[in-house]
Amino acid sequence: MRHSLMIAGLLCATTAAAQDKPVLTVYTYDSFVSEWGPGPQVEAAFEAECGCDLNFVASGDGAALLARVLLEGDSTEADIVLGLDTNLTAKAADSGLFADHPALDVSWSLPIDWADPIFVPYDWGQFAFVYDRTKTETVPADFEALAASDLTIVIEDPRSSTPGLGLLYWVKQAYGERAPEIWAGLADNIVTVTPGWSEAYGLFLEGEADMVLSYTTSPAYHLIAESDDTKAAAPFTEGHYLQVEVAAKLAGTDQGALADRFLAFMTSDAFQSLIPETNWMYPAVTPAAGLPKGFETLIRPEKSLLYSATEAAAIRDAALAEWQTALSR
Q: If you compute the radius of gyration of the chain from its CA atoms, what whole number of angstroms results?
């Protein structure tokens, strides 16, 4: 009986200790928290030093993430949102739901200058159409060539997906007033439009389309993780649109100090060294060991396209309307 009482007491003490740990809730996208994404390793590394419970909540791609937080407003359970990008930061900042982070002494490895009081970058990449070298012999060199070809593509919905929204801006910045014409030409190449990146890339791998909207870094996964060099990103002469992914803390969080600690942790080698081989993007801060072998084989576009956060917010509705009109015909 004494042993039973002792065991019961120990269980109660363990449960109480676990309940005493502060919980940091981070809304992010599905692939980040998948078993092959950075989430599990980030969770283990941060919890080892914070004495807390890091709780990731998958909430769709970046646009869906922001939509959820805006819908929940001040009642959101999120302390941090991880997975927005510069196409969404102006709308996020205007909501008043996000707070400044403490100053960070960081030497960013980004292709653009970075100084934002709210949003902390953790990786970056450039959008590209990925194809299989063994199946696609003639690779289009730009959007016009793609539209004129018989190649099929899978893209993501710009209303729910950051890659999908990035594609809108890519076409718009490359072609300006001709964007509706480009979309009209691409309409018959599009097999389907998926809610997020994971669904689109899965369809491509299943052979449902010749090409998929993804990143210049996507072939690194196949090369490094699968020893498969058949996947490649098509270089486009008009340039490639840049994506910088960011995180920020919610103004209403009751774990402000812990949230700031996590944002600082994101810039550390422990976090950044995970990015290339789990999120398959370029890290925002180059790890001490450098990039993994295989990244040197990736295309490096000479021209990067990018709207500022305010420009992206200003043209979003018009660009979306052009896309919807073209695909509804």
A: 21
Structure letter (DSSP) for residue 33: S
Alpha helix ranges (H) inside 129-196: 143-148, 162-175, 179-186
On whether the CB atoms of residues 326 and 181 are closer than 8 A, the answer is no
At residue 164, φ and ψ (nearest 5 deg) are -60, -40
Cα 266 from Cα 77, distance rounded (Å): 21
| Residues near 41 by beta carbon (within 8 Å), at least 6 away in sequence | 274, 278
**Two tokens at 43?**
């969770």
This prediction has a pTM of 0.90
**CA–CA dist 155, 149 (Å, integer):** 16
Q: Are 297 and 223 in contact (CB under 8 A)?
A: yes
Q: What are phi and psi of 132, to 5 degrees?
A: -100, 120
CA dist 43 and 22 (Å) reads 14
Under 8 Å between Cβ of 314 and 250:
no
- pLDDT tens profile 41-64: 999 999 999 999 999 999 878 788
Lowest mean pLDDT among 7-11, 147-151, 227-231: 7-11
∠ CA 248-251-257 to the nearest 5 degrees? 75
Residue type, 187: A
